[in-house]
Amino acid sequence: MNEHVSIPAPANEAAHCPDSRPNTRKVFIKTYGCQMNVYDSTRMGDALAGEGYVTTEDMGEADLVLLNTCHIREKAAEKVYSALGRLRDMKKERAAEGREFMIGVAGCVAQAEGEEIIRRAPAVDVVIGPQTYHRLPDALKKARNGERVVDTEYAVEDKFEHLPATEKKVIRSRGVTSFLTVQEGCDKFCTFCVVPYTRGSEVSRPIGQIIDEAKRLVDAGVREITLLGQNVNAWASEDGKGNAIGLADLLYRLADVPGLARLRYTTSHPRDMDDRLINAHRDLRILMPYLHLPVQAGSDRILKAMNRRHTGAEYLALIERIRSARPDIAMSGDFIVGFPGETDQDFEDTLRMVEEVNYASAFSFKYSSRPGTPGADLPDHVAEEVKTERLERLQALLLKQQADFATSCVGKTIDLLLEKPGRMPGQVIGRSPWLQSVNVDAKTSQIGEIISVRIIGTGPNSLFAEPVESLIEV
Ligand code: SAH
Ligand code: SF4
Ligand code: F3S
Predict the structure, then answer these.
(1) 413-467 to CATH, choices 1.10.3720.10, 2.40.50.140, 1.10.150.170, 3.90.700.10
(2) SS3 for 20?
(3) How far apart are CA 9 and CA 247, in angstroms?
(4) Whether the Cβ atoms of residue 177 and residue 295 lie closer than 8 Å to each other
(5) Which residues are near ligand 3 (CB < 6 Å)?
(6) Is 190 annotated as a binding residue?
(7) Mind listing the pLDDT tens digit of every residue in the chain (474 residues)?
(8) Where are the domains of the chain?
(9) What residues flank ligand 1, with Cβ below 6 Å?
């Protein structure tokens, strides 16, 4: 082993002369899964920045590769092991050169499989769960001393209290939109889902911590924040006087953060969509008219077997209430086809549900049996070809709805948040209030501004627009 690469520069030397540090380490973080993993990857980057690591987009120059993994479907979990096979070979090459190369597995596969990962992939140095990643620097130190670390306890301390705040220049480099986790875990126990096991029970971050983080983001130039939670609308806390407050209250408070222009939140469960939250969509212009509200299936029999705890009719009635509060709201959803016992008739009910709601966007999946979930033990698993055929039919319908929604936007004048340079010089990509990507002629110096544009056309995954007047700042 070439020892000098693994000894960090003394803190005072680093502070005075950062460029002279011979051994600034680089971490490459690969993120799988949902938006919360995207957020967690940035916060793991923060935890490692405190140890002198900088993040790199180039795996070839990394001293540490961290896989932030997803366990939701079998395929997602399998990807991790094939990536680990490739990393093992890289580690061998690096060892031959005498260079440090560490491998960490974080996220939901880490939580679900723990020790098993090290058994199957001995090249892994550290396995760390979603609730303990603030301890990543410690785990790496132990691993450098030859210990294989598996840290997947549910930490008693709050990881957010222990993570260093993201540096302003790092926030800026990440763009003008940001995720902010406000709630983690799930107590719903849908019978197909691993999340209650990988993320633990529902925990809400305190309001003060969230407002502080939002202010820091905005201060660094962020204009749009998406609040994240596995069940974000189950967020619950107390105000200063000991009164119970919910997600609606949090949104009203965030709406007052100076400089913040747009708010979104995801993912919601229909059971936790209360009247105050629906009214927030009516009252708050800062709250974008887009709601991801998964239903999973249209048949009451299947909804019951999934333990979703509402009927199809209740979901449709809920959407009607949301639409009367905010008529221009775009609905999005998730669907699973081929849950055990799903008949042709049940599937037709899903199609009918989709017809009735008319989604602006949606995600749909074939049921994947997950060990340890109640669904795995149910009888009548659906044949793979039947799942494939149902998924194709469902996706054709959802894609048509999405395309129709895009077409219905043509001719409209909308506010566009300019986010990043487009593919063509002179073009910038922005987001519509309904989360569509929109290409427009603008200067990259305008990124972060909200401009008024008219939609003039649609492409396969985006819209085209022209500016209509001089800038309107919000
Ligand atoms: N908390 C969110 C969903 C989190 S998982 C909610 O309650 O809606 C994201 C999506 O993955 C789910 O909405 C579901 O559609 C899908 N999913 C979860 N488990 C799955 C499984 N075992 N097989 C296929 N899709 C699954
Ligand atoms: Fe999974 Fe259901 Fe919880 Fe969503 S609500 S995370 S689908 S168990
Ligand atoms: Fe996957 Fe975990 Fe998110 S299982 S979907 S990364 S909560």
Answers:
(1) 2.40.50.140
(2) helix
(3) 44
(4) no
(5) 33-34, 36-37, 70-72, 107-108, 194-195, 198-199, 230
(6) yes
(7) 332 333 233 333 333 344 444 468 999 999 999 999 999 999 999 999 988 999 999 999 999 999 999 999 999 989 999 999 999 999 999 999 999 999 999 999 999 999 999 999 999 999 999 999 999 999 999 999 999 999 998 877 889 999 999 999 999 999 999 999 999 999 999 999 999 999 999 999 999 999 999 999 999 999 999 999 999 999 999 988 989 999 999 999 999 999 999 999 999 999 999 999 999 999 999 999 999 999 999 999 999 999 999 999 999 999 999 999 999 999 999 999 999 999 999 999 999 999 999 999 999 999 999 999 999 999 999 999 999 999 999 999 999 999 999 999 999 999 999 999 998 999 999 999 999 999 999 999 999 999 999 999 999 899 999 999 755 554
(8) 4-151, 159-408, 413-467
(9) 72-73, 192-193, 195, 230-231, 267, 269, 294, 296, 334, 336, 365, 367-368, 370
Distance from Cα 277 to the centre of ligand 2, integer Å:
20
How does DSSP classify residue 287? B
Token pair 């550290």: residue: 126
Q: How crowded is the C-beta side of 251, counted as CA atoms within 13 Å?
A: 27
CATH-assigned architecture of domain 159-408: Alpha-Beta Horseshoe (3.80)
**70: annotated binding-site residue?**
yes
What kind and span of H or E run contains 387? helix 384-409
Q: What is the DSSP string of 79-98?
A: HHHHHHHHHHHHHHHHHHHT
**Length of the chain (residues):** 474
Tokens of 81: 């092991």
Which of 189, 191, 230 for mutating ligand 2's site (highest number of atoms within 8 Å of CB)?
Answer: 230
Helix, strand, coil percentages for the chain (3-state, nearest 5): 40, 20, 35
Q: How many whole angstroms separate alpha carbon 44 and alpha carbon 42?
A: 5
* Nearest-CA residue for atom 8 of ligand 1: 294
Which of 365, 373, 387, 388 to mutate to test ligand 1, by most ligand atoms within 8 A of the CB atom?
365
Domain 4-151 sits in which CATH superfamily?
A: Methylthiotransferase, N-terminal domain (3.40.50.12160)
Please report where in the chains the tokens 């540490």 appear, as a residue: 64
Q: What residues contact residue 354 under an 8 Å CB cut-off, 6+ apart?
A: 298, 335, 362, 394, 397, 398, 401
Expressed in angstroms and rounded, the spacing between residue 464 Cα and the centre of ligand 3 is: 33
Pocket test for ligand 1, best of 334, 350, 390 (most atoms within 8 A of CB): 334
Ligand 2 geometric centre to CA of 412 (Å) = 36
